[in-house]
């Protein structure tokens, strides 16, 4: 299909699940590619598609699009009312079996007469590389965690380094202890299916012609360079709302699956500059009653205003997970606010925010870096312990709450961290480092910045390989850190 300028149009197909932390980085990369003149389609499961259409208030379901990115949906093999998050392992393993066929059908149906130049997957739908290969389409991956995690997993699954010692020394990374490693690599990991999926993927990375990353070179220089001879990774981020990067005119294509409490912003307007503690543990983690009580007590005792996103379990839990202590709302009603979901990126860029108590999901880390807000890290699972290590020892923009001798965090430990970050001896240093990285994030995405150059490199390589592509359908194929109880999660995929 020729474009208006007479040039051959370049069509890309991005594949992702609609978990909040997976979807927006992909949409933002898609928007960047769209702005460069490529045709971009995002494919997700039918159930995820319904959620997206609802969140973005899209009613035209036959030609659905978000800011020019066309949306297509494929079946995942489960009925719409099936609870996919109840057994994550089972769902991911089933999807890895049915997904390639469903995606292949979608490709054959929609790319009969149009050449598909590239399929972009992410690590949680890495099976899409098989559909790409079956259809003779080159495949790229958008790695949605830090490049450091990519390096760790690659080395672990390909048995390139020793991981069975107390301290792990890897090129380009700080010395790691067991509690700094991603939970999927620990003996206590209870998500064997996810580990198997990562293992399969990292042992066959050759299926991906390009690995892009939601990070930026200046942030993870050593880890990125350490992979350059092994299996290169091209950072193209941070893929956060443009307004967080000072690009106030640019449209954000990200969508929020849950409805944010916008009145939080009005409340923030009434607070003093750099006074509010923002607390959120992302879209999945539901904290135990013990940890919730420790945070509640610490917030009350510090006497700072706070905005706390409290995630309650889908089904109320007998052990009180995710429930605030009974005394809390009454005793802190003039001090802070509790909401089920906040407009986080707007919150972080609000001048009244002083620090962010976070689980260190990678999107939250990038958002707080882009906003220049210091961090108090309380990681839960997956990449979060390693992200916390990076926040503290590499980016040097925060401190980590450590569990006490009983393995559970205490209110005293949390208060100590808050005091240190807001007024301890390292206060100036943390603020300064956060400001430096905020600026570096902005520079990475401006014209000729490191991420901008990497995107252009990727697009140029796709464009130059386009002439040799065949059309779609041709078939020319080639551990839980101190959580005070079992970790509960609301996983929405
Ligand atoms: N988020 C939000 N409001 C909230 C909590 C989270 O908008 O109240 C967004 C947050 O800005 C981030 C995403 O949800 O973009 C969470 O992704 P992250 O990788 O930090 O954690 P996950 O949810 O995957 O554990």
Automatic annotation (TrEMBL):
Keywords: Glycosyltransferase, Transferase. Belongs to the UDP-glycosyltransferase family. PROSITE patterns: UDPGT. It is an enzyme of class 2 (transferase). It comes from the Eukaryota. PANTHER family: GLUCOSYL/GLUCURONOSYL TRANSFERASES, GLYCOSYLTRANSFERASE. It comes from Hibiscus sabdariffa. Its EC number is 2.4.1.-. Pfam families: UDPGT. This is Glycosyltransferase.
């Amino acid at each position: 299909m020729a474009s208006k300028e007479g040039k051959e149009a370049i069509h890309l197909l991005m594949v992702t699940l609609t978990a909040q932390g997976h979807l927006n980085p992909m949409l933002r990369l898609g928007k960047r590619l769209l702005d460069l003149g490529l045709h971009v389609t995002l494919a997700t499961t039918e159930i995820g598609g319904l959620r997206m259409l609802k969140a973005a208030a899209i009613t035209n379901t036959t030609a659905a699009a978000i800011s020019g990115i066309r949306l297509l949906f494929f079946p995942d093999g489960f009925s719409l009312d099936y609870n996919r998050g109840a057994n994550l392992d089972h769902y991911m393993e089933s999807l890895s079996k049915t997904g390639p066929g469903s995606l292949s059908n979608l490709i054959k149906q929609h790319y009969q007469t149009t050449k598909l130049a590239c399929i972009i997957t992410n690590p949680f739908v890495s099976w899409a590389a098989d559909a790409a290969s079956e259809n003779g389409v080159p495949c790229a991956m958008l790695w949605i965690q830090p490049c450091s995690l990519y390096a760790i997993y690659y080395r672990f699954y390909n048995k390139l380094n020793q991981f069975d010692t107390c301290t792990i020394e890897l090129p380009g990374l700080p010395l790691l202890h067991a509690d700094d490693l991603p939970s999927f690599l620990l003996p206590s990991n209870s998500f064997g299916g996810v580990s198997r999926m990562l293992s399969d993927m990292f042992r066959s990375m050759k299926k991906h012609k390009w690995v892009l990353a939601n990070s930026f070179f200046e942030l993870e220089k050593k880890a990125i360079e350490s992979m350059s001879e092994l299996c290169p990774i091209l950072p193209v981020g941070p893929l956060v709302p443009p307004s967080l990067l000072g690009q106030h005119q640019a449209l954000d294509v990200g969508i929020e699956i849950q409805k944010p409490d916008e009145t939080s912003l009005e409340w923030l307007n009434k607070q003093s500059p750099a006074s509010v503690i923002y607390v959120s543990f992302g879209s999945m983690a539901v904290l135990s009653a013990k940890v919730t009580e420790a945070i509640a007590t610490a917030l009350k005792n510090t006497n700072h205003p706070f905005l706390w996103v409290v995630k309650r379990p889908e089904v109320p839990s007998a052990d009180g997970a995710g429930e605030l202590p009974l005394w809390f709302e009454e005793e802190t009603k003039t001090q802070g606010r509790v909401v089920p979901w906040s407009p986080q990126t707007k919150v972080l860029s609000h001048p009244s925010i002083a620090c962010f108590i976070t689980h260190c999901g990678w999107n939250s880390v990038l958002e707080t870096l882009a906003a220049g807000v210091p961090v108090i890290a309380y990681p839960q699972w997956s990449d979060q312990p390693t992200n916390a290590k990076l926040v503290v020892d590499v980016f040097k923009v925060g401190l980590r709450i450590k569990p006490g001798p009983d393995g559970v965090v205490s209110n005293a430990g949390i208060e100590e961290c808050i005091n240190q970050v807001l007024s301890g001896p390292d206060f100036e240093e943390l603020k300064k480092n956060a400001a430096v990285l905020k600026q570096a994030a902005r520079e990475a995405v401006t014209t000729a910045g490191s991420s901008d150059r990497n995107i252009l490199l990727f697009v140029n390589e796709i464009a130059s390989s386009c002439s040799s592509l065949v059309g779609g359908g041709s078939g020319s194929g080639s551990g839980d850190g101190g959580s005070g109880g079992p970790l509960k999660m609301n996983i929405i995929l």
